[in-house]
Amino acid sequence: MAPLPKSLQELDSAQARLCLDIEKFGNLKSDINFASKKVLVAVSGGIDSAALLIISTLLARKSGGRVFCAHVDHNLRSVSVEDAVFVEKLCADLGVGFEKKSVDAKGYAELNSIGLEEAGRILRYDFFNYCLKKFDADFLLLAHHLGDLCEDVVMRLIRGTGWPALAGMDAYDPDRKLLRPLLETNKRQLETFLKSIKCSWREDESNSSNKYTRNRVRNNIIPLLLNENPSFGINVARLKNQADLDQDYWESEISRCLDQIKRLEDGSFFAPSKILKQCHPALRCRLYKKIIELLGKGHALADSINLLENSYVAKKTGSVFQFPSNKTATITKQGIVFKFSQRY
Fold first, then answer.
1. Is the domain of 225 the same as that of 308?
2. 173 and 34 both lie in a single domain
3. Is 299 left (phi over 0), alpha (psi -120 to 50) or beta?
């Protein structure tokens, strides 16, 4: 592998512009110059994460930030140990702090009776959170790109996710310090970037297997959509931007209503009809969902929310609706009482 570039100035104009566009997108979503902060980059060794690590390092050198790397070996492939060696060498060449962990994803899945993908995700994020604290990092950077966003939208459509979450994963999650600066970048651009600096990467042969839902979407469904419309990815990015705008609007409306919702001494919420009747049904349903989430863990299904709304409109006083994690909504003459009941 050729010596890696030490600054943006060593790149050709097209690749330098790509890096700056990625920085601009990340800054727009996080509302801060993320490259000037301490960032932890999750790196598997594939095209996406290897490119993100290098780009993040170049941007940090320009803006005065620091970069650290976290790598997880799930022990699902015989050559996975070589991925760790590659990533560690890449970090050494870049002068980036490196932290790795080997986990038994298969054993964890069997022990907890969950899917292998879910087990890997839990173990990864546990380690990422550990590294965030160890390095006192401001952001966790993930290498999800435009192709991943397209896959996510299709998978959410299959699962029946509602709007605006239907438009896919978020570029920024402040609660988890999570930033995806590549989310509007095409994977082909990342491959071209690595080739332009003569940097290799690791291939995960399991990506070609149709054993997992995401792989089937990637390998079978996405190609058909792109064949119908080569601009499918661009359209998904546009959809995501519209969804973000809509989400901002709904959040502001929900917040306005919550200011008028009463929190009772036992921790339950009372939504008076005086407020609910002023709301459009679309706002009421979102308000129900938000209140249920405020009661604790467990998400309400759309069908349950709609059933509550229909019963409220029909004035079915006394009706009680059960939601996950022992949460209930009771329709009264004065409004709706949302309550969490502790089990003993």
1. no
2. yes
3. beta
pLDDT score for 344:
43
Same domain, 280 and 229: no
3-state secondary structure of 248: helix
pLDDT tens per residue, range 150-189: 999 999 999 888 888 899 999 999 999 999 999 999 999 9
Question: What does the angle CA 316 – CA 322 – CA 323 come to, to the nearest 5 degrees?
Answer: 125
Domain range enclosing 75: 8-241
Report field, pTM of the whole predicted structure over 0.85: yes
Phi, psi for residue 160 in degrees, rounded to 5: 90, 25
Tell me, yes or no, whether 236 and 265 share the same domain.
Answer: no
Please indicate, yes or no, if residue 2 is contained in any of the structural domains. Answer: no
| DSSP string for 250-310 | HHHHHHHHHTTSEEPTTS-EEEEHHHHTTS-HHHHHHHHHHHHHHTSS-PPPHHHHHHHHH
Is residue 3 in some structural domain?
A: no
Under DSSP, the state recorded for 211 is: S
